[in-house]
Amino acid sequence: MNEIIPTIVPLSADDFASRATTLAAFAPVIQIDAVDGVFAPNSTWMPEDGQRLPETGARYEAHLMVSDPLSVGVTFAHAGATRIIAQAEAFGSASAIEAAFAAWRAAGATEVGLAMLIDTPIEALAAHVQRCDSILFMTIARIGKQGEPFDPRALPRIVEFARLHPESVLAADGGLNEEVIPALVHAGVRRFCVGSAIAAAEDPAAVYKRLSEVANAL
Hints:
Keywords: Isomerase, Metal-binding. The protein is α/β, with parallel strands linked by helices. The chain has helices at residues 13-24, 69-79, 94-106, 154-164, 181-187, 196-199, 204-215, and strands at 3-8, 29-35, 59-65, 83-87, 111-116, 134-138, 170-173, 189-194. It has one domain (3-217): Aldolase class I (TIM Barrel, Alpha-Beta Barrel). It contains seven helices and eight strands; from the N terminus they run βαββαβαββαβαβαα. An eight-stranded parallel β-barrel has the order 1-2-3-4-5-6-7-8, surrounded by six helices. β6 (134-138), α4 and β7 form a beta-alpha-beta unit. It is globular, with a radius of gyration of 16 Å.
């Protein structure tokens, strides 16, 4: 079954807890955007060492847009995030990716993966596909905040990657709504990280339900 994963760009621990509690009433997986103000211009709340994410009944996926993904990912895994995904561009080498994946798993993550900016060549991830439980495609031009429009350049990239790596679990993040999700399903995407379309909705649960129907109708 294809997944709709609501995303939170948290301003504080209280802000995250409030929004996660709301989303967990209908979503089994919630994504936390972690931005350090260095890798991307925005900055968000992140748990400190020893701090736990709130127990809401949902599983947490952390999307790291940070300059030190290894240590931030370990902190998130210790806090209770079971999926850790980091921007591939934040790593300086293949060995750094391997070390981060090992550290995240040792800290409790059950899934690890990489995300790609829209201008990063898909070939850059070819050597790492087998180590990834999922690959996340950014489908917006600017990352780190919600409300950015979908960038159609993402579609042919995803189609080509899916052709080359049909075994990979592909995710898309950015500008997703009822209009663009069908094309992404056809392209090979199975996980859809949705921010403002749910967060800004008058009835987030109804929007989540509708997007889930759209993502699984094809």
